[in-house]
Each structure stands twice: as structure tokens, then as C-alpha cells.
Design brief:
203 residues; alpha+beta; two-stranded parallel sheet; elongated; DAGKc domain-containing protein; ATP-NAD_kinase_N; Diacylglycerol_kinase_cat_dom; NAD/diacylglycerol_kinase_sf
Amino acid sequence: MAVPFGANQYILKASKDELLSYRGICLVSGDGLIFEVINALQERLNKAQDNPALLATEREINAIPLFHIPSGSSNATASSSAFQSGYGPYRMRLICSSLSTIKDLLLSALSVLTAPLKCDADQASGDEICWRLESRPIDAILVQSAGETTPHIGILSLTWGLIADIDIGFEFLRCLGGTRNVIGAVLSIIRWFFSLQNLCNGN
């Protein structure tokens, strides 16, 4: 389905029947789109009272599994999910770095998110693979800053320091992929070093 606007807007505007007709939501992205979708689902619950067409219970919304195919420059969410599922972040990186086709991409993502099963004769034929989808709950945090009426749900750690500065401060280098993290780390350390020197010199 082609959506002419953001995924979060689609979730907010879709009718209850349309949204609940899907078995799950598959996201091909880094960490940002997952954040948007989770918060859109929560915002939908808040707006449902004003719009009966959106009305869906919290249990129905929470029952919609999210599947993540990591394709961002950092993929911290996918790494955490793989680790909690027993795969480990390093194996996930190895899987995702050896992809050659779209089919490989989908099967590799499924191998991280699901466990393979043997197919019965009446279920599949040839080289088809049956998969048992296993959704897992995640810990989340609710953050609301002064002046904001709507709280935000976070699924990664809340940090203030070098890692956060690299992730947010060097967003403009996204086109470089994972290399932006290395460049951001070096520049941030250099900046911190000279700031510390100026502080020690009384400047």
C-alpha cells in the first residue's frame, strides 16, 4: 500500500476496521520510524474519544505486533530486540551485512524476529519456509517535558552525554550511514577536549 504521507499520519487517520484488519505492522527503517509509529498508536488512543471512527480499545492496539527490518544507520532497537531474543546484536549485524537480494533481506529479518518450523505437506511445498511469529513485550518509558500537552513514549535509553550528542547532533550526516557515528564521535571528543582545556585555563 502506497501512503502519500507519514506512517504516523496513516495510523492516526485509518479507521478502526482498517487498522485492526492487519496481522501486524512491518517497519523497514532505523529507530526513528518505530518511535513515530508507537507514539501514533498511543496518540490514537487519546483521540479516540473525540472521533468514534478511531475507537479501539487499549487491548486491541497493544495486540498489534510491530516487526522491524533494520535499515537505518544505527538500528539500536533491532540490536536490542535481537539480543533479548537470544540472537545477540553481533549476529544480527552479520546477517544484515551479508544481504544480496530483497528476498535475502526479508528472510534475514524473519530469522531475527521469528523461529523456523518444519512445514507439513499441506502447508507448503518446495523451498518454502514456515515461520512461527513470536512477539515479545518491550520496556518503555513515558516522557513529558514542560509546556507539552502530549507525553512521548520512548523505547531506548534516556541519555544525556556523548552518545546522545553523536546520535542527534550529527543527524545531518545521515547520508553517510553508520560512518556518521564514527565521525560524530571523533569530532565530539575533540570538541570536548578543547572545551575542557579552555575551562582549565579559565577562558
